[in-house]
Every structure is written in structure tokens, then in C-alpha cells.
């Protein structure tokens, strides 16, 4: 497990054994789950509990996963609709696909 403080001030943990990025905040956990494929990861599901919605946590999770992929020279697939919409709105990540 590794963790980084993101620009959004959330401490995001990468749990490689569980294949997810997580945020723990106010007694709740949010996560972005992924699957591995040769040469990259597929972002498959973003989950933020109701009490944490509207704080930009899902975006922070996707941004962290994309930064991790860039740093580790991995390709990205976005099966998760939220992650796909995020990449579409931020074309600076299109090179990872």
C-alpha cells in the first residue's frame, strides 16, 4: 500500500493487492476499483458514500489513478462511466489510453 496527499487535500491510498485507490474521511471510505490487463489498468468502479458526495472525492481518486499510471508508464481503460467522463473532460490524460 502506498499513499499520497493530493492537491484536493485528500490522502489517497493505493492498495495494489486489493486493486483499488481509497480515501478515508469522516468515518467513511470511498474507492476506485480497477482490474489489471497486460500493460495497464482498467478503472472499473468508483464508489463514494452518500455522506461524502459533492466534495470532489471521485475526481481526486480518478486523478490519482491516472497520475499513478503515468508515473508507472501504464495504459488506462475506463470501464467506469465516471472515470470515462473525467478523462473526456480532461484531454491531458488521453495519451494514457
Give a quick set of tags describing it:
single chain; 25% helix; 97 residues; 38% strand; globular; Aminopeptidase; alpha+beta
Task: Note the topology.
Blueprint: E1 2-5, E2 11-15, E3 20-25, E4 28-37, E5 40-47, H1 57-71, E6 75-78, H2 81-89
Parallel strand pairs: 5-6
Antiparallel strand pairs: 1-2, 2-3, 3-4, 4-5
In short:
This protein has 97 residues and is an alpha+beta fold. The protein is built from two helices and six strands.
Structure overview:
By secondary structure, the protein is α+β, with helices and mostly antiparallel strands. The chain has one domain (2-96): Aminopeptidase (3-Layer(aba) Sandwich). Helix content is 25%, strand content 38%. The protein contains two helices and six strands; from the N terminus they run βββββαβα. It has a six-stranded mixed sheet with strand order 1-2-3-4-5-6. The longest helix has 15 residues, at 57-71. The protein is globular, with a radius of gyration of 12 Å. It starts with a strand and ends in an 8-residue tail after the last helix.
**How large a portion of the residues is in β-strands, by DSSP E?**
35-45%
- What's the quaternary structure here? single chain
Got a strand count? 6
What integer is the average pLDDT? 91
String of helices and strands: EEEEEHEH
Count of discrete structural domains: 1
What's the architecture, going by CATH?
Answer: 3-Layer(aba) Sandwich
Helical stretch tally:
2
**Biggest beta sheet attributes:** 6 strands, mixed
Q: What is the CATH superfamily?
A: Gcn5-related N-acetyltransferase (GNAT)
Terminal-residue CA separation: 25 Å
Would you tell me which CATH topology applies? Aminopeptidase
Amino acid at each position: 500500500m502506498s499513499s499520497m496527499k493530493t492537491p484536493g487535500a485528500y490522502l489517497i491510498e493505493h492498495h495494489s493487492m486489493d486493486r483499488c485507490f481509497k480515501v478515508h474521511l469522516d468515518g467513511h471510505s470511498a474507492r476506485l476499483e480497477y482490474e489489471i490487463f497486460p500493460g495497464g489498468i482498467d478503472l472499473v468502479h468508483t464508489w463514494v458514500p452518500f455522506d461524502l458526495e459533492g466534495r470532489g472525492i471521485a475526481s481526486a481518486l480518478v486523478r490519482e489513478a491516472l497520475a499513478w499510471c503515468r508515473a508507472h508508464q501504464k495504459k488506462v481503460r475506463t470501464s467506469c462511466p465516471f472515470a470515462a467522463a473525467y478523462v473526456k473532460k480532461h484531454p491531458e490524460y488521453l495519451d494514457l489510453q
